[in-house]
Amino acid sequence: MKKIVSVIVVVVVLLSVLSVASCAFTGVSQEEYDKVVAELDEVKTQAQVTSLQSELSEVEAKNQSFKEMLAKAAVYAEAIRAANAMSEETTEEESMAVWNKIEATGDEELKAKWETMGELWQKSMEGEATEEEAMAAWMEWIDYAFSQLVNILTVE
After folding, report:
1. CA-to-CA distance for 147 and 107, rounded, in angstroms?
2. What pTM does this model have?
3. Residue 145 DSSP SS3
């Protein structure tokens, strides 16, 4: 009986040792593990690159939009500055330069208001209109020009 128990104990011990040893040999090698981790890191990195490229494209588009907005605002600001610098001593050539700046805005209403204002100033010099009427037309033009400039610069 002792022999049978001894044999059983030896068999159980051998099976346990074999079982533990076989578990160690059936796992993933460190080399395979490192390879899979590296591939996973590469996939994550590529996803981040793709996401950042998309964000960069959006930022570049907004930047271009802001550049265009500022360029348009600069045209209005230059027209306002030039018109405001006019005086009774302004030459015909200087007046044409101001008109060219106003035309550069491409704003038909701004041009129409300028022409109306110019006609009223001319009429006021000829006694056919009052200076108040001409000044009111000037204020209407400048108010409109500034409102357009503010509208351009208003960023949502």
Report:
1. 12
2. 0.66
3. helix
